[in-house]
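SAMPLE LOG
Freezer: B-3
Tube label: C17
Construct: single chain, 190 aa
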Amino acid sequence: TSKSKRGDAEILGTMGYSAYLTKPIKQSHLYKCLLTLKGLHEGRCDTGQTGIITKYMIDDFGQDCYRVLIVGDNLENLRKLLYHIYKLKIRCDLAQNEEIATDAYKNNNYDFVFVDCVCASFNSIDIAKKMSDQKTKRKPVPIIGIASDSSSLNKSSCQKAGMIDIIKEPFERKRIVLILNNSLNRPIEY
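STRUCTURE (predicted):
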């Protein structure tokens, strides 16, 4: 609509409309609205409300309804990666042991998985291998290794475990976005 009035969204919601945008419509709002509607239809997005989608909700909700799992036992090492993922407005789960990681992977529909390659309390290569083997049951989920340095890292064992790439500290948002965009269907803006 070109002129909005208070309560219009509620009225249109009861009439069966799924989204309500006001003119002038920004291209980014229309694009994110369509992605959110697609995600709702596929059961991938949770808007936190059952009502109609508005540009205000899109701005608050986030970007593309992506969901990421980060597996690692040292929260201090992963804090900067978590910061960048949250800044990209991507839903993120953290698993700090093998049992939680495998359960989370089985029970949720992740778009991407980051696995810390050097964990003291569990074998991260085995976890990545298990996740990689499970992708035959559903869509392939890209797995990225996380390394603080490349000297203690065996790249061939990471590749055999199903990791498609390795990201090293210091984490840069530009590099994270590049990796995500290379592996996912829809581009992420930053």
